[in-house]
Amino acid sequence: MSLGTVMLDLGGTVLAPEEREMLRHPAVGGVILFSRNFETPEQIAALTAEIHGLRDPHILIAVDQEGGRVQRFREGFARLPAATRFGLLAREHPVQGRRAAEAVGWLMAAELRAVGVDFSFAPVLDLDRGASRVIGDRAFGANANVVAELTGAWVRGVHAAGMAAVAKHFPGHGGIEADSHTELPVDGRPFRAIEREDLVPFARLIRQGLEAVMPAHVVYSELDPRPAGFSAFWLRKVLRERLGFQGAIFSDDLDMAAAGAGGSFPERARAAREAGCDMVLVCNNRPAALEVLAALEDDDDPAVHLRCLRMHGRGGAPGTELRLDPRWQRAMLALGELEAAEAPDLQI
């Protein structure tokens, strides 16, 4: 059975019978886990094993484990720093900043692979312009080249742990104040300004073999009236053709307020797929998820299947063995350095 084009969520810490049936639907390709799905590392490992056992090839399992305020699994996992800490360290000590990013990227990925999670929706490549309420300390910094260097190091660590990376939010969410979870942000800058700054980290990581991208639910009004995740201009012309990206494209959550510009949930899903998204996310709205599954039941694209297969995790040592790995010790030292970095005035 091929991987489908829909990623959805679960209600709790164990699979309900109806969820087992739902995950066997041919349109399902992935599951995203939230804090409500997590109790302990042992429990989450059992849950991921059951999910993976339902299909062959197995369903992708993802989570938002960026660090800072966006870390779904906490108890029994290392407390990861907000991305802005890497930028603060790199400001005074560039080499240490890059080493810390690589070490903590490995740590994040190694801990998730130990419990059967395929990948995290990270890193955030948005530039911190001091405007966005939803980005803020999730950004590695304001300078495009510094962000590219730090996230490139972070991704090297992720790859070393057997995990693919997902860069977000293409082409850049840091320049507007509005939060796409609650409203539709509009960025009025011309393409030249976005290309000169926001696209730099994406272009750099794509050249380094980035596996996946998540577009922003943001309208770039000088270029397309549709949000980037529904825009063939951004996903096909810019991302695929201009930047040469060949990996998977995951939509942001179609239940977010900004996605309402796409119409009904089936209309949103079809619009995202037609624009160039390979897999669409429908979270925290089970009736909507079922509507989308029905709408995309016959959506079978071999190219999408192949791109998404690259997102499967590789390897993964048990948690007890991780602490014996020299890279674990380097990561712990890096966490100490990051904790000592000057606390930012986020003003968000």
Output the keywords.
348 residues, alpha/beta, eight-stranded parallel sheet, two-stranded antiparallel sheet, 13 helices
- Backbone structural class: alpha/beta
Gyration radius from CA atoms, angstroms: 19 Å
Average pLDDT number: 92
Number of strands: 12
User: In terms of per-residue confidence, which ranges show pLDDT below 50 for 5 or more consecutive residues?
Assistant: 344-348
Strand order of the largest sheet: 6-3-2-1-12-11-9-7
Q: What share of residues are in beta strands?
A: 5-15%
Q: Report the helical percentage.
A: 40-55%
| H/E series | EHEHEEEHHEHEEHHEEHEHEHHHH
Report the total helices. 13
Q: What would you call the shape?
A: globular
How would a crystallographer describe the biggest sheet? 8 strands, parallel
Ends apart, CA distance between termini: 45 Å
Can you walk me through this structure?
The chain has 348 residues and is of the alpha/beta class. The chain contains 13 helices and twelve strands. It has helices spanning 17-23, 41-52, 84-92, 94-114, 144-160, 191-196, 199-207, 232-242, 265-275, 286-295, 302-309, 319-322, 326-340; strands at residues 6-8, 28-33, 60-63, 65-67, 70-71, 119-120, 166-170, 186-187, 212-215, 219-220, 248-253, 279-282. An eight-stranded parallel sheet has the order 6-3-2-1-12-11-9-7. A two-stranded antiparallel sheet has the order 4-5. Strand 1 (6-8), helix 1 (17-23) and strand 2 form a beta-alpha-beta unit. Helix 9 (265-275) packs across helix 10. Residues 344-348 have low confidence and may be disordered.
